[in-house]
Amino acid sequence: MKNQTTELKIEGVRVQISSKKPYDRLLASLLEDIGESPIDLTALDRAHSSRECYQAAVKELEGPGGFMLFGLIDHGAWTAEAGASRRSMRVILGNPTLALTMLKHDMKAGLFAPVELLLLEKPGNESYLIYVKPSSLMVVESNEELLSAAQVLDEKLHALAVKVTG
Question: Average pLDDT for residues 77-96, to the nearest whole number?
């Protein structure tokens, strides 16, 4: 029996916010909000036997903007070896409680949850914060419940981005 492959074209909406902050300050502002140590979701899940306990633990770990850090990829560090001189950090962040509001409507939305930001140094001691609007990636077929939940994520992510870049 052959495996079936399906391809579906999607169009993401990239958001780029310029910041007068130097790269280091932008990164520090973001990590101040979402935390500096990545959260281990599997360990968090195993440590709480009830949904109520789990949700309380998530609430305690989330930053003021409602997100927590899941991982960092320092593109600037590894690309420097190839001659690229701009600092760049890919930041993986999210909130499992918020993710559930989308995943319960379509588990395929998990391909884009958690979300990612790219912090990029720009000339003149300034920086960019770049992300792809989550709803533009998650909602590729008609699904009003998913769209509504993903738009809440869009708003929260944009609010965080505006806050830390300002």
Answer: 88
Give pTM, 2 decimals.
Answer: 0.92
* pLDDT at residue number 153: 98
CA pair distance 13, 137, nearest whole angstrom: 8
Class of domain 15-165: alpha beta
Best CA proximity match to 102, nearest among 62, 151, 60, 141: 151
pLDDT value of residue 78: 84
Q: Where are the domains of the chain?
A: 15-165
Bridge partner list, 128: 18, 120
Query: Which strands form 126-132's sheet, in the order they lie side by side?
Result: 14-19, 126-132, 115-122, 88-94, 68-74
Whose structure tokens read 């609007």?
A: 133
First to last CA, the chain: 56
Determine contact, residues 131/157, Cβ cutoff 8 Å: yes
Query: Is a pLDDT exceeding 80 seen at residue 85?
Result: no
